[in-house]
Amino acid sequence: MAVLNPNKYMELLPGEVKTALTKVIHVLEESFMGFWIPDKLRDATYHYIRNRGKLIRPTLVLLMAYALGNGNGLEKAILPAASVELIHTASLLQDDIMDQQRIRRGMETPYSIYGSHTAMLASDLIIAKAVEFAIRSGDNDIVFELLNSSVKLAIGQSLESELSCKYDTTIDDYLRLIYYKTASLIESSMIVGAYSVNVKDTEIVSRIRDVGRFVGTAFQVRDDIIDYLNMDSKNPGTNYNEINIVRIMSRYDGNVNDAISKARGLLNEMLDKAIGTLRETMSNEVLVKYISLLRI
């Protein structure tokens, strides 16, 4: 098992998607130009925009639009992709506050540097801008999809706090949590990618929603395994207050190796379901190749 270099994700992207992703990054970096914002608040707001991760969620928006639009219509996906990334960024700021997280992506968090009040206000600014970008997409279906996803993320944050106080968290509890906290936004990323190229057939949208849920579940299970084994040098390993599938599966018999094997099995089962559903929905394999990188 290994933590993938972000370059591996980029290597699989068609040239048109890479170009569109560059435009998304530019939109993000220009998000708050023209506003006077106090220095500390501006720095906290831009922290994760400038120190970005793999940009998986906006990339999924663009890849879905590319696959369903036969390479056309990517311009219409740029604002929705930026909105998705801003929603994710706001959730990181809130997660840092709630978990008192001091290190993320190998550096101090805005919570650690500027305090919880500034980090909270930065998340408010980012959410407001995410809503603006969704509205500017000109498609109410995109707006409502992303608003609903934001509601689910808040529910997920609350549920995580409740479950962290329980000793007897079940796998069902865990799956409900990761749907709200992680998979729901990945699901919405794929949906708004489809909406961006005017794909709104009920059956196709339902399949895409399934794909997003499967991929989102696999994504979080993968992160849990990596965190539990402390495989990512840029991020601290899981602590005993965090909800982690390996800890849940090994709670009663203490067999960590068996729990990791079962978690990997679930991860790969979710990816198999996602790939199967994608192939029923579209002939383009670009998304299949991209999400296959999640296998460990």
Tell me what you see in this structure.
Keywords: Magnesium, Metal-binding, Transferase. This is Polyprenyl synthetase. Its cofactor is Mg(2+). InterPro entries: Isoprenoid_synthase_dom_sf (IPR008949), Polyprenyl_synt (IPR000092), Polyprenyl_synt_CS (IPR033749). It holds the Pfam family polyprenyl_synt. The protein has 296 residues and is an all-alpha fold. It has a single domain (13-294), classed as Farnesyl Diphosphate Synthase (Orthogonal Bundle), CATH 1.10.600. 71% of the residues lie in helices and 1% in strands. The chain contains 13 helices and two strands; from the N terminus they run H-H-H-H-H-E-E-H-H-H-H-H-H-H-H. The protein has helices at 6-11, 15-29, 39-50, 56-68, 78-99, 110-114, 116-136, 140-163, 171-196, 202-228, 245-250, 256-281, 286-291, and strands at 103-104, 107-108. It has a two-stranded antiparallel sheet with strand order 1-2. Strand 1 and strand 2 form a beta hairpin. Helix 4 packs antiparallel against helix 5 (78-99) and helix 8 packs antiparallel against helix 9. The chain is globular. The N and C termini lie close together (5 Å). The mean pLDDT is 94.
